[in-house]
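Figure S7 source data.
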Amino acid sequence: MTSTDRQYFRDMYAANNDPWKFETSSYERRKYALTVDTLTKERYHSAFEPGCSIGVLSELLAPRCERLLVTDIVPSALAQATHRLERYENVVVERRAIPESWPNDTFDLIVLSEIAYYFDAESLPDILSLVVRSTAREAHVLGVHWRGETDYPLTGDAAHEVINSNNNLRRIVRHLEDDFVLDLWERVG
Ligand SMILES: C[S@@+](CC[C@H](N)C(=O)[O-])C[C@H]1O[C@@H](n2cnc3c(N)ncnc32)[C@H](O)[C@@H]1O
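Tokens for the predicted S-adenosylmethionine complex:
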């Protein structure tokens, strides 16, 4: 398997507006709080969250960023994200697929939350090349992924190992629980 078939995500949202219970799960609420608290800089100039889903994490990131771009491939998820985020003038919601519609911007924060393991060990490095291309030194890359069993191309742990093997990313924070792994990398080189 290479990357997860995009129809999988369209089917998930067709069956349920919030298929991963991002709005209501106490697990997600706590994980999101830890995610945001892991960011070591108070403010980021320009941030990017690919695979934003319905925008629940995006809403917590918004106050920490002067500008935040959030993207997804499923129109119904983006409609919910747009509604949730409309009061944040600093947030832009766009329909974009990675890797082919990676934005042509420079970011000082990229958040890979529950997205990297939908790509395999051959295609994730290409996405990391785009991450490196669109960040300057000292930018931050945050990764957070569930560690349980899935039928995705990579486990959460394996996805983080692939990210960590990129020579331009130096891990500066690691938080490991039975259920999820949360890492923060600094762009070096
Ligand atoms: C599990 S959700 C993660 C949501 C969010 N980042 C969070 O942690 O709350 C994964 C999202 O990635 C989107 N997605 C999957 N493949 C994608 C791709 N190639 N480009 C952009 N978004 C994608 C899916 O539609 C889905 O909404």
